[in-house]
UniProtKB/TrEMBL annotation:
<keyword id="KW-0540">Nuclease</keyword>
<keyword id="KW-0479">Metal-binding</keyword>
<keyword id="KW-0255">Endonuclease</keyword>
<dbReference type="GO" id="GO:0046872">
    <property type="term" value="F:metal ion binding"/>
</dbReference>
<feature type="domain" description="RNA-binding protein AU-1/Ribonuclease E/G">
    <location>
        <begin position="160"/>
        <end position="285"/>
    </location>
</feature>
<dbReference type="GO" id="GO:0003723">
    <property type="term" value="F:RNA binding"/>
</dbReference>
<dbReference type="GO" id="GO:0006364">
    <property type="term" value="P:rRNA processing"/>
</dbReference>
<dbReference type="GO" id="GO:0004540">
    <property type="term" value="F:RNA nuclease activity"/>
</dbReference>
<dbReference type="InterPro" id="IPR004659">
    <property type="entry name" value="RNase_E/G"/>
</dbReference>
<keyword id="KW-0460">Magnesium</keyword>
<keyword id="KW-0378">Hydrolase</keyword>
<dbReference type="Pfam" id="PF10150">
    <property type="entry name" value="RNase_E_G"/>
</dbReference>
<dbReference type="InterPro" id="IPR019307">
    <property type="entry name" value="RNA-bd_AU-1/RNase_E/G"/>
</dbReference>
<dbReference type="GO" id="GO:0004519">
    <property type="term" value="F:endonuclease activity"/>
</dbReference>
<dbReference type="GO" id="GO:0005737">
    <property type="term" value="C:cytoplasm"/>
</dbReference>
<dbReference type="GO" id="GO:0016787">
    <property type="term" value="F:hydrolase activity"/>
</dbReference>
<keyword id="KW-0694">RNA-binding</keyword>
Amino acid sequence: MAAPLIVLSVSPGERRVALRRGDTLDAAFVERPHRPEGLGDLHVARVAARAPAMGGVFLALTGGETGFLPDSEGGKGRGEGDWLRAAVTRAAQGGKGPRLAARPSPEAVTGPVRLLSRGPEAALRLAAQNPEAMIVTDHAATAARLRGVLGTARIELSARPAFDDALEEEFELLSGMAVALPGGGRLTLHPTPALLAIDIDAGAVSGGRDATAHKALNAAALAEALRQIRLRHLAGAILVDMAGMAIARRRELLPGLAPLVAADPALKLMGLTGLGLIELQRRRVHTPLHEILGDPPSPLTRGLAALRRGLAEATRRPGARLALTASPAVLAALADCPGALDDFTERAGALALRPDPLCPPGQEHVHAE
């Protein structure tokens, strides 16, 4: 089996990180440095309130943010106004603040609330989990920084965009909630505040009477569903509705699903519900991709994608004066993203912004003037 490869694409306002095993995308992260996920950050925090019904305390963090410290992670016995060091163990998600765990301090902790250190970025987390993996990036400053942490042997600076067409296509797929299945059919993912629902559509197979074909399609669809859950950092309660199988026959799929579930330490197979839905539970850790990218993609997501395409255009047409035509909402989102437009200017030259209220979402484009 080929050694895993970490691919890091750096563009204005965004870092995209992929873990590849051969031709398979095995992990995906989208990071926006102006709004870091915060996992692993170490804070000096103050107890703002006790929540007996929840079994923990709320902590006031820097920037006016509030996190939750369970009693089992060091909240027990702490009262309002207490100071402590705490690390983020679960990123903010679903409209809720981060979850924390108390960390010992060699000396007394006092205010003000402040950030002591940032947790590792995705590329470094993946490098620690995959010590044999090389990291390929297309950004010189990032390559130099990573070499200072991991050494020169593991970091390769690419003169071409780090993401090839296949990776670009995979990440584009992750920005939507429908996933086509090989041989027909599709998965549709429906995240809600309470749970994630996944529907399997059998496509052309649904009209046939071949029970073996239905079983094979559902087994393949379930395997892809687990992969999509992992790639998108989806978690909490998960229900999967299979296609075209009687409830009694759906139970036949559970033994084959068990080893796939076991490969994801955060995932548990709970069984089959009375309605014949496969029930899963996944521990929440990272912010789900759809909360970063938006569903549908947010104006900022579309604007940053346009800047990526603009860098490619600048490479093809060195010295050309470039302009970005996009809706006012997209341009406003870029203006509010610290450093994104400045980074583009530094790497590709000045970019004129051309608002077009009639520009449809997804049709933003950088062009030569």
